[in-house]
Amino acid sequence: MSNSKFEIFKSPANSQYYFHLKAGNGKITLSSEGYIAKQSCKDGITSVKLNAPDEQRYERRQNNSYTFVLKARNGEVIGRSQSYASAESRDAGIDSVKEDAPGADVDDLS
């Protein structure tokens, strides 16, 4: 069993709530947009947990680096990855989110 977890935090810069998913190694594999209400942030985590296992929810991107976004069924982006140096490492990041997100605990740091 991995030690992956979602962390909820509040930005001092804009007072919005965010979450990120940390893999068992402590690295952030997915980050959210800002939410005004904490409950909306929690709802975003629920959406990630539900959509993460579905390959069709991932959009792979390549500009100067390799990234991906996770989209909800309605097409809205619910999480963004870090930048990766290769397509292979990006795809490994997607595999990590697929495996880790559904069962990850939530740690509210706000």
Automatic annotation (TrEMBL):
Q: Which regions are flagged for Basic and acidic residues bias?
A: 88-101
Give the Pfam families listed for this entry.
DUF1508
The record ties this protein, via InterPro entries, to: DUF1508 (IPR010879), UPF0339_domain (IPR051141), YegP-like_sf (IPR036913)
Q: Where is this region: Disordered?
A: 82-110
Cite the DUF1508 domain residue spans from the record: 14-59, 63-108
Question: PANTHER family, from UniProt?
Answer: PTHR40606, UPF0339 PROTEIN YEGP (PTHR40606:SF1)
Q: Which protein is depicted?
A: YegP family protein
Give the organism the record lists.
Chitinophaga filiformis (Myxococcus filiformis)
Taxonomic lineage from the root = Bacteria, Pseudomonadati, Bacteroidota, Chitinophagia, Chitinophagales
